[in-house]
Structure formats: C-alpha cells, structure tokens
Amino acid sequence: MAKILEIRVIRARPGGSWAIVKVLTDQPGLWGIGSANDVHHGDTVTTAIEQVIGPRLVGLDAAQIEDIWQSVYTAAYWRNGSILNTALGAIDMALWDIKGKEAGLPLYQLLGGKCRDAVPCYGHASGRDLEALVDDVQRWLEEGFPVVRCQLGAYGGGGFLAADSVSRPIDGREMDSVFDDEAYLENVPKMFEFLRERLGFGPKLTHDVHEHLKPHNAVTLSKLLEPYRLYFLEDVLPPEQIDWFRLIRAQCTTPQAIGELFVNPHEYVPLISERLIDYIRVRVSKAGGITPCRKIAALCEFFGVQTAFQEGGDNDPVNQAAAMHLDLASTSFGIQEENQFSDAERDAFPGAAVLEGGYLYPNDSPGLGVDIDEVKAVALRRDSDPSGTAQDRRADGSVVRP
Fold first, then answer.
1. Max intra-chain CA distance, the chain
2. Residues contacting residue 171 through CB under 8 Å, at least 6 positions apart
3. How many CA atoms are closer than 13 Å to the CA of 84, on its beta-carbon side?
4. Which of 30, 162, 207, 367 could bond to 100 as cystine, CB 3.0-4.6 Å?
5. Nearest in space to 328 (alpha carbons), one of 101, 113, 100
6. 361 is catalytic
7. pLDDT averaged over every residue in the chain
8. pLDDT at position 118, please?
9. What is the per-residue pLDDT across 161-207, written as a single tens digit (0 to 9) for each?
10. CA geometry: angle at 151 spanning 246 and 176, to 5°?
C-alpha cells in the first residue's frame, strides 16, 4: 500500500486563506489534496500541518484513514479546537482523495453510492430595501435555486439604527450605526410578511441571524417567524447559548439550523439526539474532515435531522467537493450552501464541482475529483488586511456576536 511521503501546504487567495494540503505518497503520481481553509488563522494552521502533524505521519500507510484520524485527534491530549480540527480535516480529506484514486472511484461511491442525482443548493439574496430584496430573491429562483436565503443588506440588517438617533454614552466610541435587538424583532418579521405577500408560500426561504440576538430575543424571533413557514432559521443562537434551543422548541415549530462555528461533539450531538434542531451546518474542514462528518450524517439519519454543510464566501473548491460527496451519499442530506468561484480560481482547481441551475454536479474522476495547479493557485495569493471579522456593536459600545 502507498506510504505517506510528504505533507505540505499551498496557499492561495488574498491573505493565503485558501490553505490546500497536499499529501504525497511513495507511489509515483499518487497524491491527495484537502482544505485547511481558515480566513483568519491560515499561518497558524499551516504551521500546525507542516511542522507538527505532518512530519509525524511520514511513513504511515495512507490507507489507514480511521486510525490516522484517531491518533492525530488524541496525540496532543487537548482536542476539539478549530486549529487542530482544520489541520486534521485537511489531511483526512487528502487521504480519502488518495483512497478514491487507488480504487479508481469517485469518493461518493466509496461512501455508499449516490442517494440523489445532484446536490440542491440555496442562494444568498439581499437588498437595501424590501423591493430590492424581492428582485434579488426572484433572480435566484429564476436561476433554478430551490431555496433562497433572505437578508436586508448585511448580517444584522433590519436591526441597525443611526448612532446619532439613540441614547449613547458621553464620549462613546465613534460609530455610524448601532445594532438594536428590538429593531431587529420589528423589521425581520415585517420582511417575511412582505416576501410572502409578494411571492406566496411556494418559494422556500431561509434567514441568517448570525447570532446577533440576546438569547431571550432569539426565542421571540423564532415565534414571530412561525407564520411565514421558513425552510430554516440559521444561527439564531451562538454556540455558547445552545441550551436555549430547548425553550425555542417548546415555543414554536420554526425550523432551526446551526453549526458553522461548531468544533466539538458536545455542541452538536445533544442538539441532534434531542431533536432540538432541524439542520446541522458544520463546515467539513472545521469538524475534522470527511471521517467525522460522515458519522454526523449517520447520526442525523436516526433522529430526523438533516445536514446543510456550511460553505460561505471564504471557502474553496476542495472543501466544497468534500461536502458535495457527503451530500450525494447521505440520506440525511437537506440542502447545501452555494459558493461560486472566479474563472481564475476554477482554472487553478481543475475538476471543481459545477454549479448549474441551483444544483452542484460532480465529475466521475476518482477521489474528490478536483485537483490543484500549484502555479496558478499560488498566483491567486495577494496581501490582505489581517484584521479579524468586522464586529457590530450595541448603543453602549458592547460587541455583538459573532
């Protein structure tokens, strides 16, 4: 069997946030790739792979995926952190890619074969006002997307007030706008009332709260949105407050989706096993790769929960391919977040999944089906602002999560 010869990272996109792991074997021409994407901690993840984890795996049998995953997971004693998960997830994807190439089969075949012909995705509609939002929703529907996410502008849209229109501390920090829970509770239900009046109940619509609300207001919003029959309400709570889902479940039937910040089984296992959520949205790389995510999908099947693996605009074609193969082979699949790439990015990742008419389509190449042109990938890298995620604040200056 093929032995691991070398593990290295190719950095692409602004800031090098696309960290693509390449696992080479002692078999000529046989390698696999995986995604260690981290828009804020690319250098940290790269160091963990190339200087800590990778050297320890050289010489091991590349076919022993489960054993490698378990040994890396526990090797550092402390575990379930985003950096370790991302590093381990990338290596795990690459090993599955190698196994598919050795078998001469696309990854979804190794996972049990197709349960569906293609992977339905949801689009991301937004608008500065309600009319613009309706137009954008209709655009996505006309393109064939079966589900559309609806936002008033950026995350928190509908909840922002002009900073000079509210009571604020004397000599408080400079801000153009502040986030207000009550404004959000007022405007988001009105948004869906407008959308249903204009579009009817045929279109499947979602909304992303992005954890902006205080927990008791998350319960209130879920109740207020119940008449509009959302496909799901996303991230109404932060990971630190997931116990509040019990109260939401007791109050209403609005479907709940969460998980893109989850890195620990203690976060998602209780929510699934107690049927407190309807869709789990972990990112494949952040959960630790294909090995744990196929187990998450199997767990969901027994409790009537569906997967909606997270993508987002910072994601790359390799992680997208990993999610797509899991989607194709899982009966607990619900919907996939769409992500689109430029011509230059697709050129650097030949074989990337095709998104057409609201559906993702794989090719029949062995493994993940996507490769990397290292020269073109590196050429995509640009310097970027190293600052973290933009943070909204309330009138008193306190940070709004995330």
1. 69
2. none
3. 15
4. 367
5. 113
6. no
7. 95
8. 97
9. 999 999 999 988 999 999 999 999 999 999 999 999 999 999 999 99
10. 105
Q: What phi-psi label fits residue 367: left (phi over 0), alpha (psi between -120 and 50 degrees) or beta?
A: left
Outline where 200-241 has alpha helix (H): 215-225
d(CA 141, CA 293) in angstroms, rounded, equals 29
Write the burial class of residue 282 (CB in 10 Å: 0-12 exposed, 13-18 middle, 19+ buried). Answer: buried
Q: Which CATH number fits domain 110-367: 3.40.50.2300, 3.40.50.720, 3.20.20.120, 3.10.105.10?
A: 3.20.20.120
8 A C-beta contact, residue 357 and residue 327? no
Angle at the Cα of 68 from the Cα atoms of 298 and 273, rounded to 5 degrees: 25
Give the residue among 235, 240, 285, 284 at the shortest CA–CA distance from 41.
Answer: 285
**pLDDT tens digits, residue range 349-393?**
999 999 999 999 999 999 999 999 999 999 999 876 655 666 899
Q: Is 228 a catalytic residue?
A: no
C-alpha neighbours within 13 Å on the C-beta side of residue 379: 11
Q: For residues 123 and 337, give the distance between their C-alpha atoms in angstroms, rounded to a whole number.
A: 7
Determine which one of 108, 122, 184, 210 is catalytic: 210
Among the options 108, 122, 155, 228, which is catalytic?
155
% of the chain residues with pLDDT over 70: 98
Q: Where in the chain are the domains?
A: 4-105, 110-367
Spatial distance between the Cα atoms of 37 and 17, rounded to a whole number of angstroms: 6
Q: Is 84 exposed, middle or buried (0-12, 13-18, 19+ CB in 10 A)?
A: buried
pLDDT number for residue 242: 96
According to CATH, the topology of domain 4-105 is Enolase-like; domain 1 (3.30.390)
Distance CA 85, CA 72 (A): 10
Rounded Cα gap, residues 338 and 358, in angstroms: 8
Segment 18-42 mean pLDDT: 95
* Predicted confidence (pLDDT) per residue in 193-242, tens digit: 999 999 999 999 999 999 999 999 999 999 999 999 999 999 999 999 99
- C-alpha separations of 179 from 3, 183, 391 in Å: 54, 8, 10
Quick check: bond before 120 cis, omega within 30? Answer: no
The helix-helix angle for 181-199 and 215-225 (nearest 10°) equals 20
